[in-house]
């Protein structure tokens, strides 16, 4: 019972993406989440710009953060690279820092690095065959 959530814990985000030019894009989102252990939500945001160097290689920079009631807002920034391996796989690497408001450390004292691999399932063919029959 100590680990059971006492409140519902929904999450939602509104996502937006704009193609500024063939090479440059801008994405941003805003949302809220609840942790299930209190009634107060946490507000979230992200702003990200990306530049396509080639058809398979791009760079990005983003600022993101969160704000919970009665706690200081936390803001982070990072930059990174993305490489499209094929039409269904993407590899990325990034690094950044806390830029404002972390309760546990002074801004600029918290650094991080990240890497990731994303893939998508190709389900369109399966759906098409259902409707063709």
Describe the secondary structure blueprint for this structure.
Elements: E1 11-19, E2 24-33, E3 42-52, E4 57-68, E5 74-86, E6 89-100, E7 111-119, H1 124-132
Antiparallel strand pairs: 1-2, 2-3, 3-4, 4-5, 5-6, 6-7
Features:
1 helix; single chain; 133 residues
Explain what the structure shows:
There is one protein chain. This protein is globular. By secondary structure, it is mainly beta. The protein has one helix at residues 124-132, and strands spanning 11-19, 24-33, 42-52, 57-68, 74-86, 89-100, 111-119. It has a seven-stranded antiparallel β-sheet, with no helix packed on it. The termini are far apart.
> Radius of gyration over alpha carbons?
19 Å
Shape: globular
Q: What is the mean predicted local confidence, pLDDT?
A: 87
Largest sheet: 7 strands, antiparallel
Record the strand order, biggest sheet. 1-2-3-4-5-6-7
Number of strands: 7
N-C termini distance: 51 Å
* Poorly predicted spans: none
- The SSE order reads EEEEEEEH
How is the quaternary structure best described? single chain
The share of residues in extended strands comes to over 45%
Class by helix and strand content?
mainly beta
Overall helicity: under 10%
